[in-house]
Amino acid sequence: MADSLGWIQDPCHLIDAVATETAQRRQDQLTKPRGSLGRLEEMAIRLCGMQGTATPSPDPVQILQFVSDHGVAAEGVSLYPQAVSFQMLHNIARGGAAVSVMAEAIGARMEIFDLGVVTDPGPIDGVRSERLGAGSGNIAREPAMTEAQLRAALDLGRAAVERALDNGARLLICGEMGIGNTTPATALACALLDLEPSALTGPGTGLDAGGVSRKAEVVARALALHVTPARTPLELLRRLGGFDLAASVGAFITAAQRGLPILVDGFIISSAALAAVRLNPGVRDWMLFSHSSAEPGHRHMMAALNADPYLDLGLRLGEATGGETLVPLLRLACAVHQRMATFAEAGVSEA
Q: Among residues 75, 130, 235, 319, which one is catalytic?
């Protein structure tokens, strides 16, 4: 498997240091006290460096929505039946889901993937059928994926980013949907961070304290079954992740290698971001972090990634909605950076 996935180790594109420095100088010359627009300034400067330009923009925004089921749902880790994944795939495609409404509102392109809901839905308008199986394996009892499935999921993410770039994308957001998927995300993060399940396990779809305790016990069983000191991050992804997580990892690595800025969503996608950075540390430079998830374990992943998310709105839906929420602020940051007058241009005295 390692030979066929050698591309994940290829170097990432370099941030343009000159564009970053030029953007910082411009911000310091705009008609405002230095730093007074706070993290809006940071957004614009980082995008300038990523895009290598004095006129940064998040547009066009490309959302990759990966839908798949997880065998661990059989352990009762969610309030919702697994049939909801199938139903939500249709809802997303019809435009009725939050991610769909928000994508239309911000004018983002969205590519929707059926990577393996349990019930094969057949052809659906607006959905790419890239099924890798009828859901991933139950990580409490077996590996999530075979080597072939892991390789295919990573390659799917890679190909999706290549298509997005061909269509002119300048910002990538990955989303996920699948009943039970906070459990593999938690298990993967625990394994990569060497933390106990109690530190990362949260309510997911709304579990009560007893449900969270049961979920943590399932994660503990998965860790006991799959985690050994000799196992690499790639092998841990295979054993503890799922089709959606692996496809997101492939997308993130490819985006960083091709110089496409990444806007990271919430808890589940952050576990994929963590895995991508463990596999290829250069990916971290290409990540912007949209929001702090209400899932309690999210802060541990953010600390490990040295990330300070821009928003804290109590979001825990996933599906790329947190990333979508930040896009209007990115646009404002870029507009101010490009169009605000400097002290010299406005004839305003500097401090």
A: 319
Q: Is the dihedral of CA 98, 206, 138, 145 positive or negative?
A: positive
319 catalytically annotated: yes
Please state, for a pLDDT cut of 90, what percent of the chain lies above it. 95
Q: What is the DSSP letter of 158?
A: H
Q: What is the pTM of this model?
A: 0.96
Identify the sign of the CA torsion 196, 202, 205, 206: positive
CATH number of the domain located at residue range(s) 58-329 in this protein: 3.40.50.10210
**Chain segment 211-263, per-residue pLDDT in tens:** 999 999 999 999 999 999 999 999 999 999 999 999 999 999 999 999 999 99
Among 325, 341, 317, which residue's Cα sits nearest to residue 58? 325
Q: Which single residue is written with the structure tokens 């349990």?
A: 118
Residue 195: closest CA among 223, 217, 218: 223
Average pLDDT over residues 121-150: 97
Sketch the domain layout of the chain as residue ranges: 58-329
Kindly give the interhelix angle for 233-240 and 182-193, rounded to the nearest 10 degrees.
Answer: 160
